[in-house]
Structure formats: C-alpha cells, structure tokens
Amino acid sequence: MQMIQQLMLNGIIAGIIYGLVALGFTIIYRTAKFFHFAHGVVYAAGAYLTYTLFIFLELNPLISFFLSIVFAALLGVAIDRFVYFPLRKRKTSNLVFLLASFGVFIFLQNLLQLIFGAQIMTLRTGSVKEGHHFLGAVITDTQILIIISSLVLFFLCWLFIQKTKFGKAIRAVSDDPIGARVVGINSEKVIMIAFAIGSALAGAAGILISLETNIEPTMGMNAILKGIIASIIGGIGSIPGALFGGLFIGLAENLGIWKIQAGWKDAIAFVILILFLLLRPSGIMGVKTEKEKI
Amino acid sequence: MEYLIHILIISGIYIILTLSLNLIVGYTGLAALGHIAFACVGAYTSSLLALNFGISPWIGLISGAILASILGAVVAYPSLRLRGDYLALATFGLGVIVYSIAKNWVGLTRGPMGLPGIPSFSIFGYQISNVWSYLILVLVFVVITFIAIRNITSSPFGRILKGIREDEIASQAMGKNVNHHKIIVFVVGAFFAGIAGSLYAHYISFIDPSSFTIMESITVLLMVVFGGMGSLKGSFVGASALIILPELLRFLGMPNSVAAPLRQIIYGLLLVILMIWRPQGLMGKYKFK
User: Cβ of A271 under 8 Å from any chain B Cβ?
Assistant: First the structure.
C-alpha cells in the first residue's frame, strides 16, 4: 500500500511544478492571447542561471535564487519586446506567434546546450538526508520546501490578479482589449508586466525543480508541454485551474506508471489533452467563452 | 562524392516530406505539427514487414504509406473541430504519442535499440544498394510526389482547398464539403510522408525512434515556411537549403557537440526572422494572416 502513497506524493510534487509553469503561461496567455511556447526555455534558463551563480560563482543560495528569478523575468520581457512586439504590431495570427515562439525555444535551448553541454548537472551539494515519514510516504525537506513555496506563489499571484490595480488592468485587457484601451489602460504595458510575472514564475519553477532533480538543457520541453496541457485542462486563463490542471496531470502521469511503464508518461498526458480538446475544450474551470475560439 | 550523393538523397526524402506537408499547411491552411509521425509509421511498417516476414520492400513501402494515411484520417478528425493553435497542439500531441509508441512498445519496435539490417529495394533481381541507384530511386519518388501534389493543387479540388485556407465559412456557404476535403488532404499528405519514411528506412538500413522526434516535425514545417507556403518550387528550395546549409558547418571542422546545437540555433533563428520579416517565405504567395 505504501507504493500508492509514494506515487501520489511524487505526482503532487510534479503536478505543483507543472502548475507553476501553467500559471505563468496562463497569465501571459490572458493578456497576449497566444501560446508562448518559449516559456519552457525561460524555465530551463532559470535553473541554469541558478547553477551558474550558486555552484560556479559560489554565491549565497538566496541571492542566486533571487537574481535568477529577476533574470528570468527580464528574459521573458526581452522575448516579448524583440520577437512578439513586431508581430503584434502587424496583427498576425496566433499561428505566426506560435511558430516564432518555437523558433525562440529552439534557439535558446540549443544556446544553453552550447554553453553548458548536453550532460545533466545537479545543484545538490550536501549529502542526501533521509526524509520524514508522512502518511506512509517519505517526504524530504526539499520537497516540503517546493510544496510550500509553490503554494505561496500561487496565493500571491491570485492576490495580485484579484486585488491590485495592476491585476485589475490585466483582467481588463484579457476580457476586452479594446474596451481596456478606451478607458485608458496601456495594453502594451500590461502585456509587459504579464510577461515579467509569468516568466519570473517559470524561473522560480525551474529553480525549485532543480533542487529536487538534475537539470539538462532539454528540460524546458517537458515542462512547457505539461504546463500547456495543465492550463488547458484546468481552463486556460484561470489561476486555480492552473494549479488544478497541474496536479491532475502530475497525478495521472505518476499513478499511471503504477500499471504502465514510465516511458508512456508523455503519451498519457497528450491522450488526456486530446480528449479534453475534443470533449471539453473550456477545461474544468475555464470560462465558457473561450470555447468559441477553439 | 559519395557523401555529396548522400546529401542529395536525404534532401530528396525531405523534399517529399515538405511537399506533402505543404499540401496540408500551405495550401489548406491547417496547422499540422506532427508530420514526422506519418513518416515514422511508414518507416516502421515497411522495415518490420521486411525484417520479420521477408516481405519485399516495395510491398512494405505501399503498406507503410497506406497505414500512414489511415493515421492521417485519424489525425484529420481533430482538425474538423479545432482551429489554429489548438489544432497545432493536438497534432503535436499525436506526434508525441506516435513517438512514444515507437520508443516504448519494445516488443514490436525494439524501442531505443532500433531496427538494424533493413534490406534495400531490388528491381528485377538487381539490388539497389549503391548511392547512385538509390538517388535515382528517390528522385523517381520526388517526381511522383511533385506531379501528384501539383495535380491536386491545380485542380478544382485544389481551389476548394485554397478556399478553405482563405475563408472556411465562405467555402461552406458555397456548398463545399469542408470536412471531406480536410480529411482527404490529411490522408494524401500522410500517404506521401509514409513513402518518405519508408525510403529513409531502406536507405539508412537502421531506424530508431530518435529519427522521428517532434523536433523533426518542426524542422519539416520550417522547410515549408522557409521555401514558401503554398509554393511547390519553394518546397524544393526550402528542404534542400535547410539540409545542405547545415552540412557546410561540418566543413568548418566543428566537433559534433558544437555543430549539432549550432544547426538547431540557426533553424530557430531562421524561424524567428522569417516570422517577423517574411512570413510568406522565400517563394510563397500566401502569408499567414
């Protein structure tokens, strides 16, 4: 019986990270209205910058985490400025954005590989400590840290979007871009803030996962795919939906390998996605109006 | 010299892939991202038939292409319901699922170990084993694909496809059966991609799942976009340019650990530049709106 509890715990850890990626993705999607695929490489860049600062330059861990998150936010804003902004000015279709985003993803991922090499690296410095026993599963200090800090980030984002003036502007632009402009909201500025926050979240997710597992240049691909799937399942644009979708995918993958081999994880996730796209495109917590666009 | 012929053969195989994807993406405007999955089905079908049952590669090639087009019909189904980037995501997912099957169904495909020793084609007892004769074989298929796709796109049927691309609702209003056309386009595109996969398998004589990753699908899509959406000449230029140019990196004497990511970096950069400055590609008439 212990097996299932451990798998559930693994599923929750994976799911909460997917949820964090989905959260950043969904905040960007709400304002900019396209699939920012390069979000995944921002996640990987966050992990690699932490590696450089913490292991290579031997900075204090908290300072390196902070700098990496700031860097991830800047990277996201830079991608928006230099790639998406010209496309937005030309009012092109979502598909052009998606392809450009693939281009950015491929470019940056291979840049990481060129700089750091294709081999896996680890942030772990000390010896592995034995975890705590909790409801029949073993949970380590790092995993507790991941769960708590992710939940705090989710809560802060929710507060930011629901309670602050900037959050209100983001919601306004996502509901009605033209109406928002009429009442004097600078939509470009709002999109920039959305990219900064979303990319900071991706960077944070990259750092958190690198505390738990190894890092490699291709780590962004899995993260963004699961992040997109999570946000669609949860209902694209919804913050609780991102968390819920992430946990759903994380648990489905990890409980799935109880009966099926681990190699099928990705296939399970995509089968779930395609079923959702065909049967319930608005997701579990999504707004119904999204359905018309699909 | 053999190396040069090898590059030409690979270019020819990619031209078939690019032409068939151009029919789906360029002419009909459907965002399909899993094209290499069809090649994967073609390659594995004809290799497994040849290795396990000793069936002639010719029959294998046809069966592979037919199986690929059945998969094409399955992929077409979501395209009837989804638009734009959601369709892109769904086809991307089907690409991942097919790759997963090739990698994880070890009992059938030997998984990551791959299938070695795939026999080559033979004609009237003459084994097509040297690169020259294989080049001729590939060129024959390139010509067949070109003629087939040109005939489709320049026929009244092709006009309806362009109609779907420009304005789906208007085409429907004109009484055209849009769903029917979309399915046929996927079936035909998948058929030729299956042929390309089979040609690849019997040429290299070894296949493993790593030849059919989702990055490969994006590369083929880049070839379509680079050459030009809805331009058959463009597909020739796009595919051969993107195969030949990265090979030049080899002559600069770079180790593979640098050349491989550098090739991808060039692809990525090219995709971004095209999207920003020239979304219709080199010779395309049609721009993504």
Answer: yes
